[in-house]
């Protein structure tokens, strides 16, 4: 370990005492850095969830390592910066560049042999550690960040492996599309652009955006290597394991075939029966044994299926809770909105300000005490049937809930307003439909209202309406209003059960 920060003293482990001895300080910091990951990993709460439950379908293709060539090593050495810092078991960069044509075939052979046998050179794992002070108490080891300087030959090894791995990963689309770090042609700026774009789209839809940001402490140090290797295998990085597995399977098949043949010949000679007939009998016995194995395997699969079913039920329940929360958020964002239909569009292009002024004129004619400051934004929305020659509906968002509620009290007055009273040609009074004002419902509430109206017609209910993104039914004058939360409520209502207020 190299003291880069000119550390004068450091705290001893589990003690308030400090030491100024350079050798002891190096050992304290080295032990601290080497055990941080293990200590943090032990503090992570255990979970009953298996990491494999989060993995989707495995990658069918397997990664195979193409042999490294001397020319490739020459190219890698050529792009190493002259001022590149190097660790142990290295040589100066300028000397490496001078001898690259001589040393490249040797390095290529070493790397290929290492990959073929699945062994990474132990000396290339040794790093020179430089402690970098972050902030806080300079005597506290926790306030230092280790910088590892590895051998320059390790860098060459990593680069040739990286180029092959990233080609395989990109070809099989393994990386998540939303990952922007450590990828070619991507940066953290792309992540910010993506987030801002999503927020803008949600704002256009009148939706609320919330974000959760997580910073994992010592994430690299706490990686479980056993899980990492299994996940690599899942994603197709299984060269050495696959080669060994195939060879073991081949050896077992050859051994079983040999034993089967010898046993058949022995039985045939002792029973004076043809070898072919004995082999047929043994094959039936073989299938019988395999059937017993199948029954045992089937029981194991059933147990696993039960576990997965239980897990699926948990996920379904969580998804339903999340869906309910999202519905509540969406309903909250809609509670300031009104929907106006039947108001003609201004010819020659209608701006958002024009639409807001039209709404203000309409609301004033209706007798509502509304000002332009009460309107946050007003805009036209597309008609579902584009072939219908009607003006696009207006969605008007208020800055105050009270202003919107006051307008809803006089919403029926909108039917009496003619386009000419809003500044349009008097001829439109006969051509346009009646102007109407409604609650602006979420898509889910709109669908529920549509089904409730069908239920109203089929069961002779007198009233069906929506208020604050909730749907209600009333059978007759004087009876209680029935709140419809979901489609099942309509089914229960037909069976005589209702939720009234």
TrEMBL record:
It holds the Pfam family RVT_1. CDD domains: RT_nLTR_like. It comes from the Eukaryota. PANTHER family: REVERSE TRANSCRIPTASES. This is Uncharacterized protein. It comes from Paramuricea clavata (Red gorgonian). The lineage of its organism: Eukaryota, Metazoa, Cnidaria, Anthozoa, Octocorallia.
